[in-house]
Amino acid sequence: MRVIELNKLSKEERNRLLKRPAIDMDKTSEIVRPILADIKSRGSAAVNEYARKLDKYENESLIVSDQEYEEAEQILSDKTKQAIETAAENISAFHEKQLPNGYEVETKPGVKCRREFRAIENVGLYIPGGTAVLPSTVLMLGIPARIAGCKRVIACSPSKGELHPAVLYAAKIAGINEYYKVGGAQAIAMMAYGTDKNKKVDKIFGPGNQYVTAAKTLVSIDHEGCQIDMPAGPSEVLVIADDQANPAFVASDLLSQAEHGIDSQVVLVTTSHGLVQNVLEAIELQTTELPRKEYVKECLKSSFALVVNNIDEAIHFSNEYAPEHLILNFPDADEVVDRITNAGSVFVGPYTPESAGDYASGTNHSLPTYGYAKSVGGVSVEMFMKGMTVQSISREGLENISDAIIELAETEELKAHANAVRVRFK
Amino acid sequence: MRVIELNKLSKEERNRLLKRPAIDMDKTSEIVRPILADIKSRGSAAVNEYARKLDKYENESLIVSDQEYEEAEQILSDKTKQAIETAAENISAFHEKQLPNGYEVETKPGVKCRREFRAIENVGLYIPGGTAVLPSTVLMLGIPARIAGCKRVIACSPSKGELHPAVLYAAKIAGINEYYKVGGAQAIAMMAYGTDKNKKVDKIFGPGNQYVTAAKTLVSIDHEGCQIDMPAGPSEVLVIADDQANPAFVASDLLSQAEHGIDSQVVLVTTSHGLVQNVLEAIELQTTELPRKEYVKECLKSSFALVVNNIDEAIHFSNEYAPEHLILNFPDADEVVDRITNAGSVFVGPYTPESAGDYASGTNHSLPTYGYAKSVGGVSVEMFMKGMTVQSISREGLENISDAIIELAETEELKAHANAVRVRFK
């Protein structure tokens, strides 16, 4: 982990720290494009072939059967079931408050305008698999979809034949309607375009590797494809801490992020040189116990600790960086939250590790990376819905705004628009 | 206008009616790509060159001066000013209710989770120009941005040297901070990447021609670019009417859409053969007065009237079509709005023409086209903001969810995540 002092940096060096590593999607897109085109034209037969070829899928049907759900429930320990249920409870409690409210405004007498929300009918969730098993992601995507009222929620995960029982138990709790054992670009194509065996979805959610990300991007700009949740990059944490912070706590938070993969972004911003040294020592100590040591070491090589003069400077830097996860580990941290303008999720105080939000506090863990927190929020119930406006105007109401409509339509040289009002008063 | 009977169609023919004409962006993208790359590397000098070369811009500075705003205000008639002000009042009144509310939930004792909203700091608005002059679009994008609290709102329109005074007056009312007289792909590149002369924006809003649309799409998938409001296609209206509807009203609504351009989508769905004939006659009659006759005639050639057995069938077809604008012109139409699942904006009753919503009822006229109403709503205040989650957990709170966190982290084989909890209770 490099240690850098903010006030010794030139403007250019500072800007470089704010940037994420460049992502070159061109090569991945070249691999993914023919898979998408093939599934678009050949449908389920092509999906099956890619699942067998690329994921070594060995069973008959790709769809999870009722029997598989039942077996999963029998195999799974009570302890794991309990953990999934506690997480689901908290995620539900937090997300239920996100159901948006419609309203009506009478903008002029007789001109009633309202807004109503509708669930997106068909949604697709991508749950990564392979080396990772992610029941938490099933909950984080499935529960908001269910709260929104989506009619059909389908999920996909790569598999050689079976899915982890924790994933299936989470899917049952979240109310997933169909679960397909297919991953990668082939899963995204199947959901975005539909096949002879299943209807296309209107929006795809969920994280994934570079192939999944490239496929999601490509279907999102194809008029025959579908919408996606948000653009993706490697996961990130930025910790702001002062000399009061417990170095072991800070080290453990940085390591939780580092174990995700070698491209994880791990940043410590602190007012204290002393803390940096103690954190580095604690990292050394804690890493020895970790199974994913190699990821962690590689990741930390490209990470940095930034020493600043005061918390104000730290907040300013963080707002420009726009981290996915922001941990505030200093006294009275709650008082500065109002000044955080760009972050996916904020963790306040010494007893709020990132892993609490990853699993069980109740907030969503699908969050904007790569600086997208400047313009996008994390996954929420509203992302599974869309607002629709409705206007209901009486004859008197239309009279009250007819001058404005006609004058603006004529300014814009759209005579038929003006005529649609005039003809009603002839 | 073709007249089709729904119950004589095969499933394939029906599905073909639901589809929009294919859009081939490949050629346009090839033209746009080098412009984006050039501006990304050469900055404002390149923007200037393209404005001069492609839009024949003739003045010195691209940015609108205070003097230009003042002159616009002097030139503009009181009648036009009044129309802009009335529209702005209604748009403000309707959109102010969209400011989202934060909230807090204590999901378990000591686990406080909340959601807060922040405005996107830098936003860019594209206001088409050329043959069209669109003060209404300035209001529809600028007012929600101002209500959201965006710090910096910039706008771009193509120009040979000046902008229409109505556009500048609308920009003043909407509180646009900087207005640039530059259009097309060069405007999108300037906003998305920033230049030596202006800071990049975080999100771009607004309609545009094929070059603008292609440029918006390309910057939205470039990690160095920015987010965009929504995907775009030609404008659309679907009118549902029965034998009680006044044919002249229906004709005027279809014509308002048809005059937008030859690729506009115009659909009439009705229970009455008689209405179709009367509407066709009224169209003939009203078209003679229209300056954009040629657009209208060309557009109507590819449009269709669909005769159905009852209003239920009409609603079902409309929900599958997912029109940008949906007009319900039959008795007690308000009672069926609950069953409309996919539409951008709904116009209820005989005195609610689409042009009311285009200009002055208060609802937004930037709406999802091309069937995207299945997954996206029109422009709203929330689209200029993003949700951020915050969790603040006490020692006791963390204890209450520690079993769930540790169990799930270990199921997912992420030991450092579990360790971040354990280390806090050592």
Report on the architecture of this protein:
- In chain A, the strands form three sheets. In chain A, strands 1-11-10-9-12-13 form a six-stranded parallel sheet, sandwiched between helices. Chain A has a five-stranded parallel sheet with strand order 6-5-4-7-8, sandwiched between helices. In chain A, strands 2-3-14 form a three-stranded antiparallel sheet.
- In chain A, 44% of the residues lie in helices and 17% in strands.
- Chain A is α/β, with parallel strands linked by helices and 426 residues long.
- The longest helix of chain A has 18 residues, at 78-95.
- At the A-B interface, helix 5, strand 2, strand 3, helix 10 and strand 13 of A face helix 5, strand 2, strand 3, helix 10 and strand 13 of B.
- Strand 13 (345-348) of chain A pairs parallel with strand 14 (385-393) of chain B, so a sheet runs across the interface.
Q: Concise description?
A:
The structure is a homodimer of 426-residue chains. Chain A has 426 residues and is of the alpha/beta class.
What kind of oligomer do you see?
homodimer
H and E string of chain A:
EHHHHHEEEHEHEHEHEEHEHHEHEEHEHH
Q: State the low-pLDDT regions of chain A, or none.
A: none
Mean pLDDT of chain A: 96
Largest sheet: number of strands, sense, barrel closure of chain A = 6 strands, parallel
The number of helical segments of chain A is 16
Largest interface: A-B, 133 and 133 residues
Quote the beta fraction of chain A: 15-25%
Shape of chain A: globular
